[in-house]
Amino acid sequence: MDSAITKQPAVDNENTFLATPASRAYDPAYDPLIDQTPGNGREYAPTYWIGTAGPAPEDDGPVTGDMDVDVVIVGSGFTGLTAAIFLAENYGIKATVLEANRTSWGCSTRNGGQAQCASGRLKRSQWIQRWGVDTAIKMHEECMDGMETFKSLIKDIDCDPQPGGHFYIAHRSKVMPSLEKEAKLLRDTFNYDAQIIDADTFKRQFVNDNEAAGAMHEPEGIGVHPAKLAFGYLKKARALGVKVHPSSPVTSWKTQQGIHYLNTPNGVVKARAVGLATGGYTSQGLHAEVKNRLLPILSNSIVTRPLTPAEIDACNFNTTQVLTDTRVLRHYYRLLPDNRVQIGSRSSIAGCDAPKQQYENKLYADMVRKFPALKGITLDYSWWGWVDVSHDMMPRIVQPNENESIYYALGYGGNGVMYSAQAGKRLAQWIAGDKSELNLPIFQSRLPYPNVQNIIESEYLAPFRRMGQRFLYRWYHLKDEII
Q1: Are residues 137 and 261 in the same domain?
Q2: Model-level pTM?
Q3: N or C end of the chain: smaller count of CB under 10 Å?
Q4: What is the Cα–Cα distance from 293 to 390, expressed in whole angstroms?
């Protein structure tokens, strides 16, 4: 195997910027808890997805003067574009989408492309603990409906789908009993055909992940090419009359007599309703309704050069289904259609540390621990991006104040590839005044502030989130790897 491998990634000191195919000027350590906006007209991150999607479709150019519109969507990622699509298709409302940088510049072109049947970061058993069985079943039905929404949207978009389901891989044998219990719950309570696969069968029939102590297979799961998907959404939206304006960050915002005035660098956009779909790139200064409501976390991703047939055989890659492991700080990975391996996981805590080489090195080492045959393989792409995690681990698609025509869909916790399509549909319903089916907990409450044992709810705790995050990461590492 080693004879087919050219060289290992550079291992420099921790302050060295990652070596990738493009300049880091696209994202100079942006941090949503610090910076007022994500920028103005920045180029895409040098992701594999952008590198292989082809040219971005035409948009409507930056805002060039004052505008008076009915509906503004802030953010042109998966959620913003699908919300605009559903507003146009279902309600005849042609929204105006404002984007700070290039279209779908943030989460939507930096993720792992895993469309799973999930919403937020909690398991079904945790839904039952939080809301009871009846509501948990309705939440599951919402996710299943979301998968159908997603499949319907992508059926005419060439986004390299890899269907078949999702493997949830036990990274240690001690995890298997809880995985078996969850699978039984999914079958018995939710009528969802989750099956347990023992370690030997999984490694022999699907992929030889060296860490795998067994796995749970879910029937729903699709791998996609995120940038091709985002570009497909953009084409759909504009064909329906939606206007999409990149290089138009919202720099300030005021509301007078129910009318919103959104300032951009080249003009004020006047709107009667505003939907926020800014994901992990929701800056603190965007609007008071979303200030301190999210814990943005960073995720790193790497993509290898194409594997040789011998390397594929050594890893026993017999599946292209999407894969995640059971760590709290989980890894998400798969074999791509061109035989590259993509893997992602947690990164630094603060944006200023994101470019440090140590985070790429750690993820590379994690990949090799799973697939020893890939030791020394070169990387063609490496990047990072922010993920929008809510403080209670579940998203919200909501009108936070019934007296204001402001709405948001945020907090997917890394499960937004699929659920963003459903969230876009639900956000469109809110904006159009169609409240049918909007009776689940995620539609009926704001994103919560960080709190201590659900007693203190105060925005003043927010500056200490990074300190708490460092502690939690250490605890999660102990829980994942040692205890």
Answers
A1: yes
A2: 0.92
A3: C
A4: 7
